[in-house]
Design a protein that fits this description.
The relative contact order is 0.08. By secondary structure, the chain is mainly α. The protein has 22 helices and no strands.
Length: about 400
């Protein structure tokens, strides 16, 4: 046997069409709730607040000193890290430890946002679209571009690591009692060949996460892709290509491929090297028109219409599956009449129950032969059968 249970419960969100066709029977099915579905149901009432909170933490942890001075530093993520003593250690060592904590927070938050997008996309496409729209309305794209608008070579090669506290060395290293007030230097605990050199993999991981978040938010969404051009992303992404790592190059080239046809012919002529790299390293589809797309496609006035259409679709999805979880149901649309009409579904179910036929005992062992002889080998006029069903159903209504 293949190990697949024929009576495995349906997953929510994947059978809306079957739900609309036979709502009465399918509402009785016990749905299988994967962990992503449980997480979505728990986050849905305050999804916008959670996304905004994560982006605020990301903004505070990923801000450079110059950008922090401009924004005012509204959120201090290092308040619990600063020591109580006014001058416990050397200022350089303290700054190194603070930068390390900010890098860890940036890595954790960016990975969390990316995992939410990926798992909700696997669970149901509308869940992915909803969290993507929340991130888009919360200015996630300009935030990520602001993070990338720095010296990325210096960022991914920053030496803010404390090897004795990094994983997996921290599992085998016994810190002294005053580890909170002392930063151990690499040569104090580790040999020279083990200490990290060259690239900071934590910062590189955060950079790749940021690029993947933008790519997921803008893929197959031309209005959002045009917003990259509005926020002047091409020069920012072009500077990111200076990082000598193939994964960073791949996602930067994917973003260039998305917006290439909106950048104009002059930009394409001046950046033929980038277009050649896209041809060499990015997967192509049969009807791709990114390299020769017309500038007439850049209709920015269609962006609000498309986002509003998507919002209406998401409201219908939430009204069908999660109406009891939302605090404000006044803005949700009403379900179609053929879904909420309980009397009609009761009559259909009664008609089906009355038409049940008693089968012989040996039918279960020979039902495949019956299928071949009576169903597959014969031609049936399904329209006539449906007309007969409607006639009998109407007769029953008139008699009652």
């Amino acid at each position: 046997s293949s190990g697949i249970n024929a009576e495995w419960p349906l997953r929510p969100g994947r059978h809306e069409e079957k739900m609309c066709n036979t709502p009465k029977r399918n509402r009785k099915i016990l749905f299988f709730h994967p962990p992503a579905e449980d997480l979505y149901r728990a986050m849905l009432p305050k999804m916008e607040d959670y996304i905004i909170a994560l982006l605020k933490v990301l903004l505070a942890s990923a801000s450079t000193p110059l950008s922090k001075a401009k924004t005012g530093g509204s959120l201090n993520v290092l308040v619990d890290v600063l020591p109580e003593d006014p001058n416990p250690i050397e200022p350089q060592r303290l700054q190194k430890d603070l930068n390390r904590h900010k890098e860890i927070i940036t890595k954790a938050v960016s990975a969390s946002l990316l995992l939410l997008l990926k798992h909700f996309r696997l669970n149901h496409v509308y869940q992915f679209e909803f969290i993507s729209q929340c991130m888009f309305y919360a200015n996630c794209i300009p935030l990520v571009l602001k993070f990338l608008n720095q010296d990325m070579n210096m960022y991914v090669t920053a030496d803010n690591s404390i090897p004795s506290l990094d994983f997996p060395t921290c599992l085998f290293f016994i810190p002294p009692p005053n580890i909170g007030h002392t930063i151990i230097e690499p040569h104090d605990t580790l040999p020279d060949d083990i200490s990290p050199k060259g690239m900071c993999w934590r910062n590189l991981f955060s950079t790749v996460n940021m690029l993947r978040i933008i790519q997921k938010l803008t893929k197959w969404r031309p209005p959002r892709t045009m917003m990259l051009n509005v926020f002047k992303s091409p020069p920012i992404l072009k500077k990111t290509l200076k990082i000598s790592h193939w994964l960073v190059h791949l996602y930067v080239l994917k973003l260039f491929k998305l917006q290439a046809k909106y950048l104009g012919k002059n930009w394409r002529k001046a950046n033929m090297k980038i277009l050649s790299s896209i041809y060499q390293h990015v997967r192509h589809r049969l009807l791709d028109d990114w390299a020769y797309g017309s500038d007439l496609d850049t209709r920015q006035w269609e962006a609000p219409t498309e986002e509003q259409r998507l919002k209406s679709t998401l409201q219908m999805y939430h009204a069908m599956w999660y109406r009891d979880l939302l605090p404000d149901t006044s803005q949700l649309p009403d379900l179609p009449s053929h879904i909420d009409d309980e009397s009609t579904t009761d009559d259909v179910q009664k008609f089906i129950d009355d038409c049940q036929v008693e089968l012989p005992k040996d039918f279960e062992s020979n039902y495949k032969v019956w299928l071949e002889r009576e169903v597959y080998d014969k031609e049936h006029d399904w329209d006539a059968m449906l007309d007969r069903f409607n006639y009998n159903f109407n007769c029953d209504d008139s008699s009652t």
